[in-house]
Amino acid sequence: MKFFIDTANLAQIKEAQELGVLDGVTTNPSLMAKEGITGKDNILKHYVDICNLVDGDVSAEVIATDFEGMIREGEELAELHPQIVVKLPLIKDGIKACKYFTDKGIKTNVTLVFSAGQALLAAKAGATYVSPFIGRLDDISTDGLNLIQEIREIYDNYGYETEILAASVRHTMHIVNCAKIGADVITGPLSAIAGLLKHPLTDLGLAQFLADYQKGNQ
Ligand code: E4P
After folding, report:
1. Distance from the CA of 22 to the center of ligand 1, in angstroms?
2. Which residues line ligand 1 (CB under 6 A)?
3. In the UniProt entry, which residues are flagged as the active site (predicted)?
4. Residue 55: C-alpha distances to residues 18, 35, 80, 130 (Å)
5. The domain containing residue 123 runs over which residues?
6. What letter would DSSP give residue 44?
7. Nearest residue by C-alpha to atom 6 in ligand 1
8. Mean pLDDT in residue range 126-150
9. Are the C-beta atoms of residues 131 and 165 closer than 8 Å to each other?
10. Which segments of the chain does DSSP mark as H helices, in order?
């Protein structure tokens, strides 16, 4: 399973990269705004800075909601760096744009997916990644992991190569459960990824090993 970090924060991206387990980055307009990245030139430069920090795919989202605008923006984003993946919302023109970019060999991430039917459309349009938002479904008392399971079953039935990118991951158990179901990728905050390190028995065991070593080597 691939690990993507869901942030536009360069320090956090660097920390995850240095851990050695990072496969890519996802961003969205809210995450860019949170880092105070505004204005077209600054936004484009920030995407390049992110690409230069990591080895994998970097999703950059279009703002346009009409087909022509998405194509214009997506082409500009794709030209920035070979690691850029054009992120498109799952709306009618987003699906049309996804097919357009697929035919041109440009990678896509279809985002804001909340149903199995939407994920089926994204696969048929040839999306590289489909992003079901599991945390936001959990927020409204709907089982986000169940959606991942449904999409896995549908994609396996037909051999669709679109990768299931479980998004809106909030904590470590989302990651573990996505791995059990067979999501291809998760994207979440650094806290969820780093949280996988934690176990009190590891800390206790290490303290004991070090104490025993000290006793015999004074
Ligand atoms: C997906 O790529 C989105 O950026 C993201 O995962 C949304 O997560 P949130 O629901 O925590 O905002």
Report:
1. 17
2. 6, 26, 28, 111, 131, 133, 135-136, 167-168, 187
3. 87
4. 11, 22, 15, 20
5. 2-216
6. H
7. 168
8. 98
9. yes
10. 10-19, 29-34, 40-53, 67-80, 92-103, 116-124, 134-139, 144-158, 172-181, 190-195, 200-216
pLDDT tens digits for range 70-104: 999 999 999 999 999 999 999 999 999 999 999 99
Instruction: Please tell me the predicted confidence (pLDDT) of residue 127.
Output: 98
Number of domains the chain contains:
1
- pLDDT tens string 35-60: 999 999 999 999 999 999 999 999 99
Q: Tell me: pLDDT of 218 over 90.
A: no
Mutate to test the pocket of ligand 1, among 6, 112, 139 (most ligand atoms within 8 A of CB): 6
Residue with tokens 């994920």: 119
- With cut-offs at 50, 70 and 90, classify the pLDDT of residue 63: very high
Calpha distance 33→141 (Å, rounded): 28
State the Cα–Cα distance between residues 195 and 190, nearest whole angstrom.
8
- Return the amino acid letter for 209: F
40 catalytically annotated: no
Write the CATH number for 183: 3.20.20.70
